[in-house]
Each structure stands twice: as structure tokens, then as C-alpha cells.
Design goal:
The chain is mainly β. The protein folds into 4 domains: 1-187, Sandwich (Immunoglobulin-like), CATH 2.60.40; 193-272, Immunoglobulin-like (Sandwich); 275-389, Immunoglobulin-like (Sandwich), CATH 2.60.40; 393-492, Immunoglobulin-like. The protein has strands at residues 64-67, 73-76, 78-87, 98-102, 113-114, 120-125, 140-146, 163-164, 169-170, 176-179, 185-188, 199-204, 214-218, 226-228, 234-240, 246-250, 255-257, 259-260, 269-272, 279-287, 298-302, 320-321, 333-339, 342-348, 355-357, 369-373, 378-380, 385-389, 393-395, 402-404, 409-413, 420-427, 432-440, 447-451, 462-473, 476-482, 489-492. Strands 30, 32, 33, 35, 36 and 37 form a 6-stranded mixed β-sheet that branches. Strands 3, 6, 9, 10 and 11 form a 5-stranded mixed β-sheet that branches. A hairpin with a 2-residue loop joins strand 35 and strand 36. It is globular. The termini are far apart. The relative contact order is 0.11.
Length: 497
């Protein structure tokens, strides 16, 4: 299997999960079968990674060949992420959960490992290095977790929190850096009873670059269960309903043949893996009244995994403009190349960029668009997206999920032209738990606040509040602005006795 440098992995945005029977690959290793130990470069010395099965210089001992900030490779020790997977509501250990690490682009950096009977895991990875072999400040990862009868993490309203390479410490084992802290613990939220059970489907995705493929069980409930193929193309898909009929895969530059679910093992065959031969999705955005930002991004979400409550879903590897991991830069026309066939929801201003899709549903360009993509040519989004400035979230969850110990005060920046606000609170499973559609408008205050007034919050559950400003005129209401899609998330963790 080919291994890729960080530069080559820029177009691979994904998560990863594999069956426990699959061994963890030697991540980023250099081939050394024809070298004497004395011939192998040591720590901090240049090396050549294993590419396309060719024999290249290996690293001494347990050192592995890793990419540098300057586009070269250097021998350095591996990194271990150590942590656990627990039930977010009960704190009970979850054995048999799958954990994988993703790089800064969202791409898998290897294969997943399975938690032990205590819910613990040790995940060996490689990271971006300085030319001398030390960990680069830019090195960071996030975690992906999955288990039977639990919602995937990250997913829904729950984003992943970056793990900083600067937290690595010296370990007992020579040449290994260890990271173990709050960010390496994953709390999974149990699925509702109706979504549990079903079968577990495993398989492989074909092609030279299968890693990061979004694998979906379609034909049954929507949003459909999904997972992501690991770096070597293996996947495991939990909680597949008996009504699901086929497995489909979505990834930039890779056209896969859908496969019927006839057994617990389903492989996806490649039809085309030339990005230039696949379709391109085109469209445009129109940014107005946007003091918070001047550029945005656009992503594609397969309709089968789109959640209409949250207005979001998993984005297949690379199906974004600009291409990941570039910062949002779209202010007019956009093109997303290499799109495999299927139906997609098109989401604009989805990321935290100070902008939102205009919430005024009385004008054109404010609805979420759907585009049907063939196996070649161009698919144009029907309408230009109208983008406007977002209401700034003050708290909780201004930037990242925030822990609260009591029912929170919900706070956001005032919209100077509003008559009232609507605020809604959802839990992580998409249930609306509280709504107030008549929060009075402010006059002279920069911040609006209203106390959460719904039923008792569940310990360990994640929630999100969304606020929308309205102008009431002539017997009708017009939505003006709202808080951003990924902000306002909080976790309820009441203080102990």
C-alpha cells in the first residue's frame, strides 16, 4: 500500500475505523529489509519513505520515517496517544470501541485500534516534524471514535477538540513520545433504542487511495449509518438496519460501484479513480451585510447522511471549496472537482467564519440546495447562496464546547435591527428540548441573554443553542440573522455532592 506525506494528504479529509482483527500498520515506516543496522539513519537524519513498494533507506531501531515542515522526511520516534472511550452519560468504559487519529486536514494518519476490556487504547501515530526531528508546533490531531449502539464522534453538534503535539512528554519506552490528557478521552453518546442493534458490516474500499472514503449503508433510515475507511481501505459499519439495501462510498477523485448488502462483508469496487474524469460541482455565493467575515467555504454532504434538524452531515474527503485544509476563501464563484456520482446537499458558510446562510426564507438563495451529480461533466447548483453576518455567540460554547454545571444563561451579541429573538436548544441526538420564540429585543445593550428554561438537563449530554433575530412588520416576520452552525455547544456536568 502506498503511504503519503503530509503534503500529499491534503486532499484526504476523513475519519477511520476498522475491525479489531486487522493489525495496526507500521505508520509511515521506512522499508529496511535489505539494510544492515549500521546503514540505517538515526534520529534526526534524513530518510526516504516507502512509496509504491520500492526499497528505500530505513531508520535505525524503532525510529520511523516522518514528514517535515520543509517537505522532506526525517527519522524520529513514534508518538503514542493513550486514552479511553467511555459512555458520556454514565462514564462506564466501552470495550471494543474503535479509535483513530486524524491529522490537521481531517485525514486518517493510519488504522484504528480497539479499546480493551477497560475501555483503554494506545494508538501509535506519526506527526509533522521540524528538520531536526523534533515535533513541529503545527503538529496536531483529532480523534474519531465509534462503537456499536453509540453515536459516532465527532458527529452531529459535537466537534473534535485538537490534540496539541506540544503536550507530548517523554515516555518510559525509548524514542516514544506520549500524549495522555483530557483530549484523549472520548465520550460516546448512546443511540436511541430505535437506532440500536442491526448488523455490523465490514469490508474494503478499492483503489490506490481508498483512505478517507465515507462509507454509507443506504436504503434504510435517514440519516443513514456511516463510517470512514481507514488509510488502507478497511472499514467497519455499526448498527446497519435490516432495511438498508446497499453500501456506497464517497470520496474526492474516486468513483465506486455500489454493492448490495448480502452478508456482513461488503467490498466496494473501483469504477474510476481519475479526478479529472469525475464530475465537478459549480455554483456561487453572494455575501452581504457581513461585518464578521468576507469569505466562506462550501461543502457537499450526501443526502443519505444529511440531518435536517441540525442542517448538517459528514463531509466526504475533499468535497469542499476551497480544498482542505485551506482557510475559507470563497466570495463568489466556486468549483468542487472530482465529485463521485450521487445526490448531495450543498452547505455554504457552514464553518466558523463569522458568516451564515441568510435565514430569511422569503427570498431566493436562502434554502439549502440539493445537486444531483453524474459520473462526469458539470453539475451546477441552481441558485446562488445569500450569505450574511452571524450573530456572535458569547456563551456557552463561544468557540469550542463548554462544560456547564448548572442550567446556563444563553448569551449572544445583539442585532441592532431586531424586534425579537427565537432561541432553540437541541440535544446531541437531534431532539428539541426547549424553545422560546419571543425573547425580547434589546435596546442599548450589546449582549442579549436569556436563561435556559426547559426540562432538567441530562448529565454528560451535549447540547447546542441557536438564536435567530426577527423583524416583525406588517403582520409578518422576517428572519434577519442567526448564530453559527458549529457554535453554542455545551456539555452538562453537574457538580458532585
Amino acid at each position: 500500500m502506498r503511504r503519503y506525506s503530509v503534503d500529499e494528504s491534503v486532499m484526504r479529509i476523513a475519519t477511520s475505523a476498522i475491525p479489531a482483527v486487522i493489525s495496526l500498520l507500521a505508520l509511515g515506516g521506512c522499508k529496511d529489509k535489505e539494510l544492515d543496522a549500521s546503514d540505517r539513519p538515526g534520529a534526526g537524519e534524513a530518510c526516504v519513505p516507502d512509496v509504491d513498494g520500492a526499497d528505500h533507506a530505513g531508520c535505525d531501531g524503532d525510529l520511523v520515517c516522518q514528514p517535515t515542515t520543509e517537505g522532506a522526511h526525517v527519522c524520529a520516534g513514534s508518538i503514542e496517544l493513550r486514552g479511553s472511550v467511555v459512555d458520556a452519560l454514565t462514564d462506564a468504559a466501552i470495550p471494543g470501541a474503535l479509535v483513530a487519529a486524524l491529522d490537521a486536514t481531517g485525514a486518517p494518519v493510519g488504522d484504528a485500534v480497539e479499546t480493551d476490556a477497560e475501555g483503554a487504547y494506545v494508538l501509535k501515530i506519526v506527526g509533522l516534524r521540524n528538520p531536526d526531528g523534533s515535533l513541529a508546533d503545527a503538529a496536531a490531531w483529532t480523534l474519531f471514535g465509534a462503537a456499536a449502539d453509540y453515536a459516532i464522534f465527532p458527529g452531529g453538534i459535537r466537534p473534535a477538540i485538537p490534540i496539541d503535539a506540544r503536550d507530548a512528554t517523554a515516555a518510559q519506552v525509548e524514542d516514544v513520545a506520549v500524549i495522555e490528557n483530557a483530549t484523549t478521552t472520548i465520550g460516546l453518546i448512546p443511540l436511541p433504542d430505535e437506532a440500536r442493534g442491526g448488523k455490523t458490516v465490514t469490508g474494503t474500499v478499492g483503489g490506490e487511495e481508498p483512505g478517507g472514503t465515507l462509507v454509507v449503508a443506504e436504503g434504510g433510515p435517514v440519516p443513514a449509518p456511516y463510517t470512514i475507511a481507514d488509510q488502507s481501505g478497511h472499514y467497519v459499519l455499526f448498527n446497519v438496519s435490516s432495511s438498508a439495501t446497499e453500501i456506497r462510498g464517497y470520496r474526492v477523485g474516486l468513483e465506486l460501484e455500489p454493492a448490495a448488502i448480502g452478508s456482513a462483508a461488503v467490498d466496494l469496487r473501483v469504477l474510476d479513480e481519475d479526478p479529472a474524469a469525475l464530475a465537478a460541482v459549480t455554483g456561487s455565493v453572494n455575501i452581504v451585510n457581513a461585518q464578521g467575515g468576507s469569505a466562506t467555504s462550501v461543502v457537499l454532504v450526501p443526502t443519505s447522511v444529511f440531518d435536517p434538524t441540525f442542517e448538517r452531515g459528514p463531509v466526504p474527503l475533499g468535497l469542499r471549496a476551497p480544498a482542505p485544509p485551506d482557510a475559507p476563501s470563497i466570495s463568489g464563484a466556486f468549483t468542487i472537482p472530482g465529485v463521485p456520482s450521487g445526490q448531495y446537499q450543498v452547505l455554504a458558510a457552514f464553518e466558523n467564519d463569522g458568516l451564515v446562510r441568510d435565514p430569511d426564507m422569503n427570498i431566493a438563495g436562502t434554502a439549502i440546495q440539493m445537486v444531483s451529480v453524474g459520473d462526469s461533466g458539470t453539475a451546477a447548483v441552481a441558485a446562488s447562496f445569500k450569505i450574511t453576518g452571524a450573530l456572535e455567540v458569547i456563551g456557552p460554547g463561544a468557540d469550542n464546547p463548554e462544560t456547564v454545571t448548572t442550567a446556563p444563561m444563553l448569551r449572544w451579541a445583539d442585532d441592532s435591527s431586531e424586534d425579537r429573538y427565537e432561541v432553540v436548544v437541541f440535544d446531541a441526538l437531534g431532539n428539541e428540548v426547549w424553545k422560546d420564540d419571543n425573547v425580547p429585543g434589546e435596546s442599548g445593550n450589546a449582549v442579549v441573554e436569556t436563561p435556559y428554561g426547559g426540562p432538567a438537563l441530562t448529565a454528560g449530554m451535549a447540547y447546542q443553542f441557536r438564536a435567530t433575530s426577527f423583524r416583525d412588520q406588517g403582520g409578518g416576520s422576517t428572519a434577519i440573522a442567526r448564530t453559527e452552525d458549529l457554535r453554542g455547544v455545551f456539555v452538562f456536568a453537574p457538580a458532585g455532592p
